[in-house]
Every structure is written in C-alpha cells, then in structure tokens.
Amino acid sequence: MIKISRALSHTSLLLPLFLLAPQAVAQTAEPQEHAAPEALQTGDETPWIYEGSDVPQDKEWLWGAMDNGLRYAVRENGVPPGQVSIRIRIDAGSMHEREDELGFAHLLEHLSFRESTYLKQGEAIPTWQRLGASFGSDTNAETSPTHTAYKLDLPNATPAKIEESIKLLSGMMRAPVLSKENLAAEVPIVLAEKRERGGPGYRVAEATRSTLFKGQLLGSRLPIGTEETLLGATPEAMQAFQERWYRPENAVVVIAGDADPMFFAAMIEKYFGDWQGKGPLTPAPAFGDPVAPEGVDPDNPVGEVAVLVEPDLPRTFAYAYLRPWRKVDDTVEYNEGRLADLLATAIIQRRLEARARVGGSFLYASVEQDKISRSTDATFVSFAPLTEDWGAALTDVRAIIADAVTTPPTQEEIDREAAQYDAVFVNLVEQRSVMAGSSLADEVVDAVDIREAVAAPETFLQVFRGMKNKVTPQEILQRTQQLFKGDVIRATYVTPAIGEASDNAVQTALRSEVTANTGARLAAKSISFDELEPVGEPGTIVSQRPLGVLGVERIEFANGTRALLASNDYEPGRVAVRMHFGAGKRAFEQDEAAYIALGEMALVGSGQGVLGQEELDRITTGRVIGFNFEINDATFVFSSQTRGPDLDDQLYLFANKLSDPAWDPNPVIRSKAAQLLAYDGMATSPGGVLQRDLEFLITAMDGRFKTPSVEDLNAATPEGFREVWAPILEQGDVEILIFGDFDQQKTVETLRRTIGAIPTRKPIAPEALARVPAFPESGNETVVRTHRGDANQAAAVIAWPTGGGVAELRQSRQLEILASIFDNRLVEAMRERAGASYSPQVGTHWPIDLSSGGRITAIAQLKPEDVPVFFTEADAIAKDLAANPPTAEELERATEPLKQLIRRAMSGNLFWLYQIEGSSTDPRRLLYLQTLQADYSETTPERMQALAQRYFGAREGWQMAIIPEGQELAKSTGERVVPAVRAAPALTTGR
Question: Name one GO biological process term (predicted).
Fold first, then answer.
C-alpha cells in the first residue's frame, strides 16, 4: 500500500464539501467567554518584530507585548482545516551554556516533556496522542546554538483542546520537574542520542565546526553536550540553568491556526501573564567574532585549516570567508541588497555546475552566503574533488570565482537568475491562501532567531521587482567582491588517505594567486518550446467520461495511454502531475543493480531530443517545471509540482522523454563517480550499512534490490546504460494524473499532442510481470553485518512478512494501527531501559501494485550489548499482541493520531492523487475510497489481535544485526525489558 508518510506529504487543499462537511462539524464550536487580550499592539504602535524596519507589515499577524516581557504573535489560518500550530521559542541554546553546563539546554528540553506542573511523569506524549497529535511530527522540539523551540501541531483543535494545550505548555516552560529520578531516566536517553550520532561523519562535522568557528562559542558549544557534563548534571544545576534562561523576557509564543486569533491571544495572556522570572535578568553571553590569527595578511587572511583523515569518507573541501555578525535594521534597502547577493551567488553556482557537468576536476561545487547562529556572516565554498589531486580541484573552483570578482557578469546572466527568482516569488503569492499554519509559525520563530522581521509573499515579490531592473552588472560585481572578503578565511579538507595533504599545503594553496577562468561563463543562448519538434501526430481520444469520484475525468487515447484529470481551485497556482509507466524494478535482471542506481540519478539528465542538461536548464528558466524520477517495485514514475501556465510544457517534457530519449554519457559518468565516492562511507555507521544492505537482504537477496558495489559500478558503462534503459522506456502502459489549478479543456488538447502522441507502447514481458520480491525463509539465524564506525554503535532489525495487492487493501490500513501500537510499546520499553535506544521505529510496507512483498519492520540503533535485548523485547511484544488484545487506551493512542493525520491529508490534492493512482488499470482501488478514513482510525481489540495472530503468530521474525568490526553478536539472555515507569519518550532536538 501507499505509505502514510508519502501519501500525506502535501496537505493544503480543501475537499469538496460532500466529503469534508461531516468531519468539519466539530470545528464550528464557539470558544467560551474569555477576557479580551490586553497586550495586543494596535493602532499606530509599531509591532515589536518591526521595530527599526520599514518593511510593509503582514497585517494577518497580530502582535502582542506583555508587561512581563513575553512577546507573542497570533493569526488565523485554516490550512489544514481544524489544525492549530503552537510554537514557544526560548532565547537560550547551547551557546548560553557555561563550561560545566554543556548539553544542558537540550537536556532541559527533554526534561520539560518528562514531567511538569500540569503533566505527571510520562504523561506528555500520551496526552497529546489522545488529542490526535502524533509523536515526532505533530509534537516535537529542537535545541539549536541560539534557541530552544517547542512545537505542537494540534489537529481537530476545539477551543477546549487549544486552551488545555496552552496550559500544559505553560507548565512545561515555567515549572518542569527537575528531580533526580527524572534526570536518571532522561540522561541515558540523551546519551543514546549522542551515541547514535557518532561515527566518522559526525567527527568530521564537529571538527569542521571547531575549525571554521575557532575562538567563537559556536565552535565549542554543541547542543548535544558532552558525556562528562551530562552525567554530572544535578537537579540544582538544571534548576539554576532553567531559572536563568526560562523567563518571560526570553520567550516568544507563536500560534497560527483555524480559530479566532483573539482567543489565541487571550489564552496566552491567561496562562503566561503572571509568569515572572526569578532574580535579575541575565544578559546573553557574547558569542564572539571570527578573528584572524596574528600576522595574517589582511588582504588574503587565510587562517586556521584542518586536514581530516577518515579512510571511508569521500574527499570534500570546504572553505569560508568569515565576517562578524551584526544586528541590522531589516529595511527594504537591506533586503534589496540581500536579493542582489542571491543573484550574485546564483550566477557563480550555475557556472560551477556547468563546469562539473562537462568533466571538471570536481564532482560538485557550491557557493552560499549565510548568517550563522548570530555568530558570523559568511560565504561558504565547498566541493568534492574527483581524485586525490585536490589542489587541481581547488584551483579550478577558485579560478571560476576569480573571474566573478574581477569581471562583471553579462546582463543575460543576471536576467536568467532574476527570472528564476521571480517565478519563485510569483508562485509564493499564488499559493499564499494555502500556506500551512505550521510553516507560517515556523517563519516567525526563524525571524526572531535572526532578529529580523517577517513579510507577506506579496512584499517579497514587490521588493524584488522593484530592485531587479536596477541591478546592473557593475553592482553585481561589487556585491560579489564583498561576498568574497572576510576578516579571516578558514578551511577543512577531508581525505581518506594519510599524507595526501597537510595544513600548510592547504594554506599555501588558498594564499596562491589563480588565473581567472573566463571560459566558465555561459554564453547567451535562447531556446523555446516553440522551436522543438512535436512528440508525434496528435492522438485520438477513444474514451472520455467521469470517473465518478472527486470530479475526476478519465480519458483514454488510441495509443493506449490514459489520463485522470481533476481541475479545481483548492490550491491556487499549484498543479500536481504524476505519470507512471512500465514495470519498475521488475523490468531488470538480477545483475543490473548498477544500472538501476545510475538510472535514478542520470536518466533525466541524459536528455531528450535536442535538449541536453544545459538546454533543459535554459528552457525551464523562470518557469515552475520539475522532473522527478522514481523507480518503484512495480512502476516507473515521472512527477512534478508545476503551475497552470507551465503545464503544457511540463507535459511535453514527460512525453518527449519517452518518445525521443537522448543518451548523453556525461550524466552517467558523473553519477557513477558520485556513487563510487559514496560507497565506502556506507560502512562507517550502522545506519549506513542498513541503507546499503537491508533491502537486498530482506528481499531474500534479490539482485534488483542490491546497492551496487564498487565492482558493479566499475563494470557499468554509458553504452551499457543505454542498452538497458532504451527498451525499458518503450514498455508498459502509461497513466498520467493531473490534479490542481489548470484549464481542463485546454489540457485535454495538450494531452492529445503529448501523451496521446507517443508511439504505441510495447508490452511488458510476462517473466518481468512475474517478478515479485520474496521474503527470507523462516528459521534462519540472525543475519549479521559489521560496520567500521564507533565501537559503541550497533543496529538491529526484526521483520515479519505480510502481503500486497489491492484485494486486502483495507487490511493493510489496519496494519498501520497495529504497527503504531507496536511502535508505542517498543519506544517506551527500549528508551526506558537506561537509554537502550533513542528512537526505535516500527513501520509497515504494503506494495499495492504487487501480490506480495509487504512487511512489518522494527528498527533500532543501540549499543552492541543491547542488540539481543531489542530482539527479546520486540519478539515478546509481537507474541503478546498475538496472545492478548491491546487495551482501549492503546487503541486510542494509536488511532486518534492516525485519524487526524488522514483527516488533514484529505485536504490535499496529492493525497487523492495517490489514492486514485492506478485505478485506470485496476478500478477496485476506487471501491476502497469510501472506507479510507474508517480503515485507518476505527478498529477493535479483537481485530488487532487477529492481525497479530496472522502475521506474528505464523512464524518467527527475521532478524538482522549490525555490529562493529571485530566484535561478536552478544548472546540473548532471554530477559525482557521491564520498565520501572511507563513514561513517554522525550523529544529529540531537531527531529
């Protein structure tokens, strides 16, 4: 079946009333009487976020500043219907910690969810699950260097639920219970999180941070902290940290959602109005400025560098021009300058990409300007050398930048990038009415973090159009020159080989002069869709009729292609297009894994007709046109999110790729190089080994699911790529779905000229259709793989086969509930066992296009000695679910979040597109639409037990363990995990 996470990824459309009305009734209740908010900033008063700014105010937000120093922002937003998004930002992150408090900001985030004034120990997550908010996506928090942010997306948000949630959150901010018992439970969980982040990649990231930001708090204050300081945390120390920073002057509350914003404001004032800080306000510490070492040439201030040797990681080089961060007045003039900087970096980025495409010395290169954690305003340059000759790659990249800082760009280059940004801003304006409240709330939190204002999409477009015609080549040159100046230049180089580079060699290379590469500039070259050859003779419509659901129209052409169209204005300016064809992984032989992987990266880039990579870029400049490619178990998919005015050309590209594919070898060569560079890195962590091996092993070593090895990739050639893919693109029925804001009558004619005009498709070979992934035989020993990462890291998987296909689609939805119950039990048990695992997960996969191949899988990262414990506990949970029905409370915790998740997703075009996809081939899919919500949210203990008996009771679970090299898998003790307290899991930072 379609995974929940994929089907629910877009939620910004309003359903037709006949489907939505029964679910929306509960949202019409009026809030109870409440005191009028007193802290709203009204009239001529400048809202707190716009102080010092002349940026036009977004009038949909209401702003409040309370006497105790707390500030808030509230607005009404009905996307998705019934949801309210609450954010509480505390101006305290890891850079607010003292030397003996490293990790305290993040630890306090965890402890705040464990127990507080209004929530007993372990009640937070179950409470919000019963209110319909799922753990991890709807209920979460993050700790950064500069802040801690608590996040709640509350579905089906009645006034009573909103008030209860604000009350609970206020208690978490004001009075978490920082006891020895809670510390003893939570510190191991944070240490488990720290452990799971370890490995070569983590070491490189932290060494890079400490090098680039040397002498600043950002370089030494990591949100995760150290084992020493976390184990040394005491209730008194945590209380001191909490009282120092968790005070109203440091707090901002943001609420956006489907209710009266005056009610939001009143509730904030009710539950936060009497909050007072303890003692005098502590000023934030000075974060520090980037400073060059003494004696460095101020005209070329190359400072600290670090050469990092990691045998299994690919070569990467990064250097940065670092300038001090200073608070700015967020004015229109300032934003015009920022937009000019974006144009400048975009021009360089395009030149670098063009160089990499035609066989440069680097696989990729990027340039980006950013303001980091109120610590530095920096320009970052990064690239991946293709060989050990990193100096040549560095010279290549610097030569392109040298040209940009010495010679103005052409007006054509500026216009090209400006057209691209203009299209982005226009698209934002068109979709303003369907912007999700959660995103709007996050934007305010981000603006507060960087000490700037917020603006409506219309303002972005107005400012950009007001300045883009004034931007001259000379001004872009001046902006570019400023971007590549800094108080200090620092760098890191990651290499797998000892002795390949030294710190002195890197410094010398960065200080050396380079000759500007004027040949990297892209010559002006216009290209238009009007100049392209037609796909073929326009097709004939042989059938055109209503599908019978959601206003969808079904069209069939004489060449056998089919279209399902749903034109609506629920998402203004947005059109979802999804075209599937062929046999997916069934089309390949067992020894063609390399060409599967290369196809995912290179097939689109290899071109079509007269359009190569550069031509595809040019012809889509200033347009909202995409070209995503997926290889699924049973189908191939082209997909895109586009706009009505660009739909005709989007359809041309999809059709032309099938009718007239091109075979440029460069994308294949580049993709092959990328995969060769990345392969060894997969062995450096349990997660990397899972990514590399799990699908291959869990499909009984089916070669089509293998991650290609170095030998496989070395044997692959561009000629072999074409030989494999050319016949595949000619095979199998085509079905295209178009849902969104478009002219349906006009699009039908476009379909005649595109999808309807492609040559008649060849049938898929019967032997390919018969290829269904198997599941490993039962009774096997645990499959053991090793990794070359940290010795305290391991991972474990246990899985049971289920099924596939349309016939039991309703049952597959019920399996989502069973998996959720399993997940809740496993999370509580494994996290409560002294941090045995930070985030174990249970999920279900049901391939709707195949007759089998489904599974329920539980995965966890752990310490090596806890792998047998995981197997014992997961097996015991599975057996218990088969032997005993779950409790009513467990059902509620599982079904209410699923119910609300589905309900919100049903307001999105993509959700319905996924449900209807494939129905022109198998109409049975339509029969199950009417039971969709009930299948995911209504069940009985007996039904859950019956499912568990069928799938868990039929056989033992298949087991896989990933342990460090040189270790042996620990023996199982047979002991179950018995948590002392069935507490809710604490939240992760940035999850």
Answer: proteolysis
H/E element, 428:
helix 411-430
Per-residue tokens: 543: 């059938």
Residue 982 domain-assigned?
no
What mean pLDDT do residues 136-162 have?
Answer: 96
Please report where in the chains the tokens 């297009």 appear, as a residue: 577
Question: Could you tell me the two tokens for 909?
Answer: 């075009």
For residue 692, what are its two tokens? Answer: 């590399």
Q: Is 278 part of a structural domain of the chain?
A: no
**DSSP string covering 34-65:** -PPPS-B--TTPPPGGGTT--SPP-TT-EEEE
DSSP 730-760: TBS-EEEEEEESS-HHHHHHHHHHTGGGSPP
User: Does 774 reside within a domain?
Assistant: no
pLDDT per position as a tens digit, 823-875: 999 999 998 665 677 889 999 999 999 999 999 999 999 999 999 999 999 99
Q: Which amino acid would we find at residue 397?
A: V
| pLDDT for position 834 | 52
- Is pLDDT of 773 > 80? yes
What order do you get walking across the sheet with 316-324 strand by strand? 302-309, 488-495, 316-324, 376-385, 362-372
Domain check: are 884 and 855 in the same one? Answer: yes
- 3-state SS record for 178-246: CCHHHHHHHHHHHHHHHHHHCCHHHHHHHHHHHHHCCCCHHHCCCCCCCHHHHHCCCHHHHHHHHHHHC
H-state helical runs in 367-410: 390-406
Tokens representing 906 are: 């049903």
Counting every residue written for the chain, the total comes to 991
Q: Is the pLDDT of residue 663 over 80?
A: yes
Asked if residue 328 and residue 244 are part of one domain, the reply reads no
Q: At what angle do helices 159-174 and 104-114 cross, to 10 degrees?
A: 130
The tokens describing 620, both together, are 């889509």
Residue 484: strand, helix, or coil: coil
What range does the domain containing 449 cover?
302-519
Verify that 831 and 890 share a domain, yes or no.
yes
Residues 885 and 938 in one domain: yes
Which tokens go with 350? 């395009």
Integer Cα distance of 807 and 633 in angstroms: 18
CA 984 to chain CA mean position, Å: 25
Cβ neighbour number for residue 116 with a 10 Å cutoff: 23
d(CA 808, CA 844): 14
Q: Measured on CA atoms in the order 521, 523, 528, 529, is the torsion positive or negative?
A: negative
H helices of 717-866, in order, are: 718-728, 744-753, 766-769, 809-832
Regarding whether 582 and 477 lie in a shared domain, the answer is no
Task: Please name the residues in contact with 860: beta carbons below 8 A apart, sequence gap of 6 or more.
Answer: 795, 796, 826, 830, 836, 837, 839, 840, 841, 870
pLDDT the model gives residue 570: 87
Spatial CA neighbour of 834 closest among 126, 112, 191, 233? 191
What is the token pair recorded at 373?
């954690």
Q: How many domains does the chain contain in total?
A: 4
The pLDDT tens digits for 366-403 are 999 999 999 999 999 999 999 999 999 999 999 999 99
**Cα atoms found within 13 Å of the Cα of residue 850, Cβ hemisphere only:** 25
Q: CA 151, 155, 161, 162: dihedral to nearest 10 degrees?
A: 50
In the chain, DSSP finds a helix count (H) and a strand count (E) of 33, 23
Q: Are 734 and 728 in contact (CB under 8 A)?
A: no
CB 107 within 8 A of CB 190: yes
What pLDDT is attached to residue 13?
27
CA separation for the pair 94, 144 (Å, rounded) = 6
Domain with residue 151: its CATH number is 3.30.830.10
Question: Does residue 794 sit within a domain?
Answer: yes
Helix residue spans in 293-331 (DSSP H): none
